[in-house]
Structure formats: structure tokens, C-alpha cells
Amino acid sequence: MVYEDNADEEDEVDWGGRPFSFVRRKPGDKRKREGGSSSPSLPPLFQNVSDNSSKSFKPIRQYYASRTLLPHSSLSVDSDDDGDPVGTLRTVANDMLEEFTDVSATEKVFMKRWNVFAENDVVVNDMDVKHLVKRFAVKHLKWIREEKGMREEFVKHCLNLWDNAVLAGKDIEELMGVV
What is the pTM of this model? Predict the structure, then answer.
């Protein structure tokens, strides 16, 4: 801001489509406020849309719908809570899993169940994966033992984790004792 000699000179400035005046001051000059108020006079963010006794206010700025990007009307409802983002993500992941051609049907079934189980858990580091796999085995023990091919898929899953250096050999031995 350029300071001028006349400290009482007022300028009109465009503040979001609304005029807003301020007084240019020299460095060191004390602020003079109207009405003795200690708060700076800022442009109003809300305007009263009804009589003075009502407490309903309407925002001045224009808001837009997050999905359609159309301007909001007074009757429109837009909420980020619409829909089920976790369910949508799960559906997309399952659809992507179905696109694999080099994966058997039993592998896909096992991976879907593992993904549903693992999405509810937070794994911070590789040491936690052993406990996650063990909880999965305990929770789905009957399914792993009785469903055709699921024990083999569990073993393959553990070996893949070992291949990626997430599980140790002794951890796999322990997990095989569970199932």
C-alpha cells in the first residue's frame, strides 16, 4: 500500500463485488474507529433476508453443488454424505479383480474376502501384517477349512507375503498351525 500525506483520504475498493472503504494511514498513526469499536470494520458476510426480528440469514456469495458444479438454489440440497463411498470403492475394486484373466475363481473369492477384512484394519508397519493374517485366519477358520481350495489359497497368500518380505518363514509356520 502506498501511503499518502493526507491521512483522512478514503478510497473505494472492490471487496468481492461489494464496495468497501478504508482510510490510508501513515506508519505510526493510531487507528480511529467509528463508534468506539475496537474491531475493524469488515464487509458483511451475511445479509438479513427478512425483517429485523428474524434470525435467518442468507449468504451473499454464490455456492455450487459439489457433484454437478451448478449454482445452488434455495431449494437444492447438496451433501458430501450422499452415497456409500466405501461400498463404491469395494465395487470398483471387485470389478477390477474380475478383469484378471490369469487368476482362478477361487483366488478371486479369497482375495475379495481378504480385501473386505483388511479394509477395516489399519496396518502401520510390516510387523502388524502377521497379526492381521492371524486374525483373518481365526475369524474365517471354518470357511478356510471347509470351502474347497481356500486352504491352498491361504497358503499361497502367506507365501506371497513372504515373497514380498512382509512375513518371515517362522510366521508362516505359526499361521499354518492355526489353519
Answer: 0.52
